[in-house]
Amino acid sequence: MDNLAAFDVNNFLKYAPHWQSALLYFPTIGSTNQEARRLLQQPTGPRELLLLTDKQTSGRGRLNRRWEAPFGTGLLCTLTLPLAPLSLDQAYLYTAIVALSLKKAAEQEADQTLQLKWPNDLLRTGLKCCGILAELEQVKNKFWLAIGFGLNTGLTERDLTEAGLSDKATNVTPEAATISREAMLAATLGFLAEYRLRLTTEAEVVRQEWVTSLITLGEMVQVLDMDGQLRLKGRAVGVDPAGGLLVELSAGETRLVQAGDVSVRLANGHYA
Ligand code: BT5
User: Is 80 in the pocket of ligand 1 (CB under 6 A)?
Assistant: First the structure.
């Protein structure tokens, strides 16, 4: 469906003029995360950028899973930012604050309440409307992050069927394309700037806000390996200091699950 409107950069800059010098818009690109990581390694050195596109030809999820979004049907972007002042085992807090920022922006801009699912999804009515992919990149002796998100705004039933996502995915609003992508992005980045500041002064409070927003906690879950094989079943009971999910098995034993290599379903096989 290439007849949808392209992202309106000028409109976005009216909401968020300070992004002008850091914004890179591509009508089409392979993957904004991939390009962001390439740019971080340029001889001129890394800098904070916002990469934005209307279509990716190889949009990526975790472990090279695909992110499907036809032209103009979503917000597809990647931010580059230094890991400092956080440590490596706190890097997941950036995913957390991007999720919290998107949640707040959806409330403000579309009057929609989204749910956060550990580790990196936002759901509406139990279906995934956004995924976040944070990748670490070492540049000389410092770590940077390329943190990308895909938020569905205008997927049609047909798009969902063609991508095999009918029972899994949805848009951020009940009616497709009823949200301004430009306003939604500006609001998200505004909230994100506030959360980034708070990470420097009260990271634990922010972490708690994220943990208490997770619908996963308290639920019976199935933890699947990336090839879809069941690894374990149990009740999600908490998140450890490095962002891992604590799952209590029926025997009372607790296992720690890392975000990088698993996906989590509710016991009935659904997201939520
Ligand atoms: C994610 O991975 O959810 C992270 C997705 C990040 C995408 C953004 S778009 C901009 C930036 N540039 C990139 O190349 N990537 C980032 P994961 O948890 O692995 O989930 C991937 C799974 O979500 C797929 O295997 C599908 O099942 C499902 N999926 C694919 N496209 C989707 C969509 N549009 N909406 C909902 N679910 C989708």
Answer: no
